[in-house]
Design a protein that fits this description.
The structure is a single chain. The strands form three sheets. This protein has a five-stranded mixed sheet. Helices cover 25% and strands 23% of the residues. It is α/β, with parallel strands linked by helices. It contains five helices and eleven strands. The protein is globular. It has one domain: 4-Layer Sandwich (Purple Acid Phosphatase, chain A, domain 2), CATH 3.60.21.10.
Amino acid sequence: MSNTWFSSDQHWGHNNVIRFDNETGQKLFGKDLRPYSSVEEMDEDMILKWNSVVNPGDAVYHLGDIFFKKDQQEAIAILKRLNGNISICFGNHDKIARSISYKFYWSGEVKEISVKGQKIFLSHYAHKVWNGSHRGNWHLHGHSHLSLTDDPYSLSFDVGCMGNDMLPYSFEQVRRKMSTKKKV
């Protein structure tokens, strides 16, 4: 049986994202959001963490900004090391990802899927409303780097990797998060 995972904003190859995320002052488990001294350390740690939870046959929905400052060959070298069947919604830093067909099952700006009977709207960007938002459909996004306040009345959730110790979120983690939301 395969599992389903969600993530965004790894920014493999982006040295400045370490400073950017850490300057927010937010902490996770008492440490900086990106506790790395170099982009090489960050890239390697994120690959190891990804593969520690994602199995080869698992479905992974990546919600944008997967690479930054990587050429096509460097990006493909990372993809070859990642477990899972990766589907991507493009983010604003996905110029390289748009040019790669290796290991990506679909590409686009938004996607609607169903996992275990739950309808989910996927996008790199946070939306106030989405198809089925008033009928219990979830919305998962990235981009905000945890800068948006979580709305307890909205079935939306930022699946940026920095909010989960650089790990992708499992479907079950997302389901638990959505179960804490108040129904309007």
